[in-house]
Specification:
8-stranded mixed β-sheet; 10% strand; alpha/beta; globular
């Protein structure tokens, strides 16, 4: 490979590894490996965008009996990952051009005009950017370590100082430092989509565990389990059956901690020594993933040794949940189980790994479709076994079954079979029977399950929660089912409104119309560059004057744009300065109050 092609070499290598599914690793596992430390963020961004567009690139290459595929000799190229990256850069990137040189570039540029025409025809038929998903950046505050109000101030300071987007768009800059409270999940903040580039795992408040970068829909599992019924269980134990990497486990810990805090404070007033009131047993059968889970728990969940009193403890268990004994005395006080088993991940619409699945689905190879169907059925069989095992724990009266899949086979079908098979083998009183219940905490979530699938009635389907990232839900596709034993009973009515004591506006889709401005919608063939004056008829003086006038108008427009850009930049600086002064003033006020207390 020539040096001229080196700008895309690393990204091409990663795409190749993803396409080959070497080691079964996902993009993040590959990209953040120790041997890929140089330019990792730029490579990650390029690969994400490239993978997003691979299905479209395959569609235009294979159109008309693979005419373009044969023209650019795609199948003869050894480094197909690099070819995909260059095609993305030419057809979809911000500048619509390929940097550097080399043989691959020459092969592609030779058919640039035909490629662009094919893209225009494809998007006219299927719509432009239909696969591009631009969700808000969701941030869950770890209330076991800090308060939401404190994190709001910290995040405003971080975003205000780091926001370095194009100052010519003042409206977007204002939105960048606008935060909202989520309407459904407590202590979940909703930030501008571009805030993701300013908040990553190297940010101090992320590394310390004060905030967790977690998608909204994945918060529904723990929320439904802990607050599905107004008659919430307190001072009991819980199980997370498939816990790694630990986001749902630690979210459940935070919610349980909040439930138990009332009892904890009551005991303090009575002079009793406070201690953890609940234990969450977190199962993970993979030794590699177990290390990740254990590290995550140590970072996010306070322990008595850390000097912070928590009302919940999390105990990671290296083992297979399916091999656990429901009658083990260790689990005698367990009342709830969170079951989020392995699934196809078909709902994760903003994941490069999902785009890779889409690329395979767009292929006309029937064998690939059969393999996919077999894989989904295999997963559904495992999910059913795991759900029935959870239902066999005698002390458990609440279960949440969730997946990040949108496939009926992994959702309603599994739920329907579990209810049917458990009912047929039911032993004991009718009060021990399992039933579907609509989670009280998500009563105002509109999208529900699908009636008739898996034998579920319309009323049963209304108890199920579905999310659809491609249909306006602004979060990844997800499925949540909340089971209760009949003996639990219905608690008093409880509002699903989220406590918003930290003074933020509730998110109501303020970011929903924001598009990715890094990729302009208009497509232009960059090779066709004609100066307006030269394009006019040189034998016609009037045409030349008109061309000159056009250039003069363009010059004036350019000056006006520069002035507007400068003004917007000044406004942005003033806004950021004002924000910093408010934060600084708040700190001074707090310090002065502390001094008064000391005096």
């Amino acid at each position: 490979m020539s040096k001229a092609s080196s700008p895309y070499q690393e990204a091409g290598n990663v795409v190749n590894e993803l396409l080959s599914k070497s080691g079964g690793r996902g993009l993040k596992s590959i990209i953040f490996a120790k041997n890929r430390s140089k330019g990792v963020k730029a490579t990650y961004a390029t690969v994400c965008k490239c993978m997003q567009h691979i299905p479209t690139m395959n569609a235009i290459l294979n159109d008309d009996a693979g005419k373009l595929r044969k023209a650019i000799k795609f199948d003869d190229v050894h480094n197909k990952g690099l070819m995909y990256v260059m095609l993305y850069e030419l057809l979809f990137s911000k500048y619509r051009s390929i940097r550097g040189g080399g043989k691959l570039k020459r092969m592609i540029i030779k058919y640039e005009k035909e490629l662009r025409k094919s893209i225009d025809a494809y998007e006219e038929k299927h719509g432009a950017g239909d696969r591009a998903v631009n969700f808000p950046r969701y941030v869950r505050v770890n209330v076991m370590q800090t308060s939401t109000s404190a994190m709001v101030k910290t995040l405003q300071e971080i975003i205000g100082e780091r926001a370095t987007d194009d100052a010519s768009n003042g409206e977007r800059d204002n939105m960048m430092i606008s935060f909202f409270a989520d309407a459904h999940v407590p202590d979940l903040l909703v930030l501008h989509p571009l805030a993701s580039s300013l908040l990553h795992r190297d940010t101090e408040i992320v590394k310390s565990g004060k905030i967790i970068l977690q998608d909204k829909s994945s918060c529904f599992s723990a929320l439904a389990l802990a607050r599905g019924n107004a008659n919430a269980p307190m001072n009991c134990d819980w199980i997370d059956a498939c816990a790694a990497p630990g986001n749902k486990t630690t979210h459940l810990a935070a919610l349980v901690s909040t439930l138990n805090n009332d009892t904890l404070m009551s005991n303090k007033k009575k002079g009793k020594k406070p201690k953890p009131r609940s234990t969450i047993f977190a199962f993970e059968r993979s030794s590699i993933r177990f290390k990740i889970l254990k590290s995550r728990i140590e970072t996010l969940v306070p322990t008595p040794e850390s000097g912070t009193q928590a009302s919940v403890a999390v105990e990671p268990l290296l083992g297979d949940f399916l091999k656990s004994d429901p009658k083990d005395p260790q689990f005698s006080n367990v009342r709830g189980i969170l079951l989020d088993p392995s699934c196809s991940g078909s709902g994760i619409v903003n994941s490069p790994d999902r785009w890779l699945e889409d690329a395979a689905a767009d292929d006309n190879d029937e064998a690939k479709h059969e393999d996919k169907a077999k894989r989904i059925q295999s997963l559904a069989n495992f999910q059913l076994v795991a759900l029935k095992h959870a239902m066999s724990f005698p002390s458990v009266d609440r279960i949440v079954y969730s997946t990040c899949s949108v496939n009926d086979e992994e959702n309603e079908v599994v739920v329907g079979k579990a209810l049917s098979e458990i009912f047929e083998s039911k032993k004991g009183s009718d009060e021990d029977a399992w039933q579907l219940v609509a989670p009280a905490c998500l009563s105002n979530w509109p999208r529900r399950g699908r009636a008739g699938i898996g034998g579920l009635t319309e009323n049963q389907a209304k108890c199920l929660i579905r999310c659809d990232g491609l249909n306006g839900d602004e979060t990844n596709g997800f499925f949540v089912c909340y089971f209760e034993r009949k003996r639990v009973g219905v608690g008093s009515e409880k509002s699903s409104a989220v406590n918003n004591s930290y003074g933020l506006k509730v998110y109501e889709g303020q970011f929903s119309n924001i598009t990715d401005t890094s990729e302009p919608a208009a497509r232009k063939i960059v090779t066709e560059k004609k100066h307006p004056v030269l394009a006019a008829d040189s034998k016609n003086p009037l045409a030349l004057n008109q061309g000159a006038q056009s250039e003069n108008d363009k010059s004036k427009d350019k000056i006006a744009k520069k002035k507007a850009k400068k003004l917007a930049w000044k406004q942005k600086q003033a806004l950021q300065k004002s924000l910093r002064l408010r934060v600084k003033k708040g700190k001074k006020t707090a310090n002065s109050e502390n001094e008064k207390v000391i005096m």
